User: Which sequence fits this backbone?
């Protein structure tokens, strides 16, 4: 009943094992069996988030965990720095505004990556800043930031570094502890291969120290309640049980392959996608392209909104358009989670057809051929 | 792999149609198909919530919607009245405290129903109260409150009435508009026959008028963002798509039967459960028993925690124990949602066996027989 090929940066396609788990009879959450499963999933999340810190699980979209970071770390009137380079970075800004945090923004043009020196300057100018909010992969622009460099700079200040890795986790590398990232937030519907509904957060000791000081009112996402419940492998409020059960299956898949291999695979698909785009004369919007999503400029003369519509109507391939000011100007191909090489090739084929039908003439098969060449080479390298 | 019979007041068992929907390939939420489905589910929710007001859908547990009510209606320093008769009522109190609301409590002993006159007195003593927070069915005590009487009283004041119908909806009648209830909140994992992960809220015009005035900071559950998105049949943040798709199936089942019939069926199961308990000499904890969950006193000499454990270990029937101060003193049988007459009878059979094994002697089959008599009579009445 649904043959769509989703190349959207969330929700991403679900593996059969995850779908099977979602459809199981529901289990009760206040049982030793469920607690054991929940504990195992949080341990798995520590592995994929590359941290020894406990992972907190919220029943919410990713934005719920972003909000949890703001309200649990800061108090009204506190200063913070927000790296502002896309729609999701703007959400950090909106959250700070909603909660009375004085945010200094580090402006970054859409499609550019932040220069870590800009963060250093902002921290030097605002020594009282308690947090730096930024993004691993800015989903709206397909840009991956240089988090290790930003983390090294932030570590020299008294601020904690908070990274939105919602679309980045398990696509772009996120060495939370090794790089010294204090807080990482993520969501279930991207690299984790789950439906939306769960959000996760890890906090360093430096970040936990802020939680007790923060005066922003909070309840549903009050980390103090979650920490207390965690001692019993529990949550303070009923979790989205069926998605937690499915997470257990998704983590088996990811951990069996291994986090480095999952990321390497996304990198290969991203490289193949970029090669396909460039083979038909398209240019990348992202100056520092992520492994999870490729943002491409709509060629001049083509209506960007028509382009994604035609791809879906003709080929059942769903890609994302641009958001906000980028609407109609870019389109975005995701290649994270359970998206396969075949899906990527089908996407490029659909793109070729749609472009031809909209008057931008490309040699049929050119994008697919270039992408396949990358995939062949990558496979050869991996098996060598 | 899971033959448990869940008689817990959430999560409740899932119908096969719901399980099938949960396991479908994921669909993207920013499409006209999804918007149409989402719109249809919210219209269905209006029917089950018995209101013409728009229904808001959050991706969260029920507590997320309770929090949404507090932060969207009130400002720090505002006065409110909380009817305090159980663990979930206490959550209203905790929410008010977290957000700086001065709450006057109307104390109600666990197991008792509030006397609506107490609410009238509280409103008279606190004419500046902006909201009355109460519960349709207090899940922790199995008590259903006289909401129509409380609503009639509250309507005479300037306060809005906010009702937690998380475990009450589709079990106990909730005539939102007819009774003049301003705000109703509910969750997905009870009468709605879904996994946890979605929460819902309806607001009267009086309540919406407060939303624009409320100064409590908020973002993830800011109703102004939800209202704006609703104009496009959308949500401001990614919904738990798979549960929304399953909601569409669950609503088909509920609406096909009809809301009055669903409630009547719960009432029959509740009556049968009570008859079963009384036939073996047990007494009800609830002075005004709800249709959704029956709270029963653990007979003296029996260890209440052992009782529920033995029921599960011997018979795979899971019932809920008491919460907080009620732990070990009561146990709770749910009979809402997809819980069937057969499940209720299996629960009573398991209870008889567990009681006998723990030294409280009952005639085997006595509870089941009494319950069956009620079910037979009810069936006869319905088909007559």
Assistant:
């Amino acid at each position: 009943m649904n043959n769509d090929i989703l190349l959207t940066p969330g929700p991403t396609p679900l593996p059969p094992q995850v779908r099977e788990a979602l459809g199981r009879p529901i289990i009760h959450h206040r049982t030793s069996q469920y607690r054991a499963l929940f504990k195992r999933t949080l341990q798995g999340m520590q592995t994929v988030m590359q941290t020894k810190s406990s992972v907190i699980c919220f029943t919410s979209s990713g934005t719920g965990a972003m909000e949890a970071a703001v309200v649990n770390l800061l108090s009204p009137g506190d200063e913070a720095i927000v790296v502002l380079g896309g729609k999701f970075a703007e959400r950090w800004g909106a959250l700070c505004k909603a909660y009375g945090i004085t945010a200094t923004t580090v402006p970054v043009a859409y499609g550019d990556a932040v220069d870590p020196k800009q963060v250093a300057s902002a921290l030097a100018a605002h020594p009282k800043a308690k947090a730096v909010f930024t993004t691993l992969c800015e989903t709206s622009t397909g840009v991956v930031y240089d988090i290790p460099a930003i983390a090294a700079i932030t570590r020299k200040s008294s601020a904690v570094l908070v990274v939105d890795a919602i679309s980045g986790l398990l696509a772009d590398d996120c060495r939370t502890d090794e790089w010294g990232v204090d807080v990482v937030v993520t969501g279930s519907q991207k690299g984790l291969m789950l439906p939306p509904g769960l959000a996760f957060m890890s906090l360093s000791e430096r970040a936990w120290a802020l939680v007790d000081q923060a005066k922003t009112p909070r309840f549903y996402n009050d980390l103090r309640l979650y920490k207390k419940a965690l001692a019993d492998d529990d949550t303070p409020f009923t979790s989205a049980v069926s998605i937690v059960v499915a997470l257990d299956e998704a983590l088996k898949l990811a951990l069996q392959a291994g986090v480095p291999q999952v990321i390497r695979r996304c990198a290969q698909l991203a490289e193949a996608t970029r090669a396909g785009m460039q083979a038909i004369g398209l240019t990348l919007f992202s100056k520092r392209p992520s492994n999870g999503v490729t943002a491409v400029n709509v060629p001049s003369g083509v209506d960007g909104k028509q382009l994604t519509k035609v791809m879906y109507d003709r080929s059942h391939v769903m890609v994302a358009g641009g958001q906000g000011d980028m609407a109609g100007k870019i389109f975005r191909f995701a290649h994270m989670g359970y998206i396969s090489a075949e899906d990527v090739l089908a996407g490029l084929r659909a793109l070729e057809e749609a472009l031809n039908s909209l008057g931008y003439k490309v040699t049929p098969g050119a994008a697919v051929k270039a992408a396949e060449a990358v995939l062949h080479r990558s496979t050869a390298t991996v098996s060598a």
Notes: The two ends of chain B are 40 Å apart (CA to CA). The first strand of chain B starts at residue 5 and ends at 6.
